[in-house]
Amino acid sequence: MKMFLITDNNDTLTGMRLAGVEGVKAADKEALKEALKKALADPDIGIVLLMERFGRDFPDVVNEAKINRKTPLIIEIPDRHGTGRRPDFITSYINEAVGLKL
Questions:
Q1: What number of CA atoms fall less than 13 Å from residue 60's CA on the CB side?
Q2: Phi-psi bin for 20: left (phi > 0), alpha (psi -120 to 50), beta?
Q3: Prediction pTM value
Q4: Is 40 exposed, middle or buried (0-12, 13-18, 19+ CB in 10 A)?
């Protein structure tokens, strides 16, 4: 199975291509929809990497792909500027899931 990257940044795209991961650049909602459509149609793609910004800016598109499909696995990753999540994201996520304060 292959990985496929959908990013809004040329540097990220170039770096991932050097690591052997193909991908496309999507600058807006329509380009994201088209890129996701292409990735979801390819049976060889097992993991789709998306920039976190897409999940923040276009949650309807990303959530539809995540909820309505079993494969490929869609993972949101931070871009070169870092993550948009709080520094205690993992701890607070566990606190919510377990119901205990760590």
A1: 3
A2: left
A3: 0.76
A4: middle
Residue-wise DSSP of the chain: -EEEEEES-HHHHHHHHHTT-EEEE--SHHHHHHHHHHHHH-TTEEEEEEEHHHHHH-HHHHHHHHHH-SSSEEEEE-BTTB-SS-TTHHHHHHHHHH----
Q: Which residue has the tokens 């170039």?
A: 14
**Residues 67-101 pLDDT 10s:** 888 889 998 888 765 566 666 656 666 667 777 66
pLDDT in tens, 36-74: 999 999 999 999 999 888 888 898 998 888 888 888 999
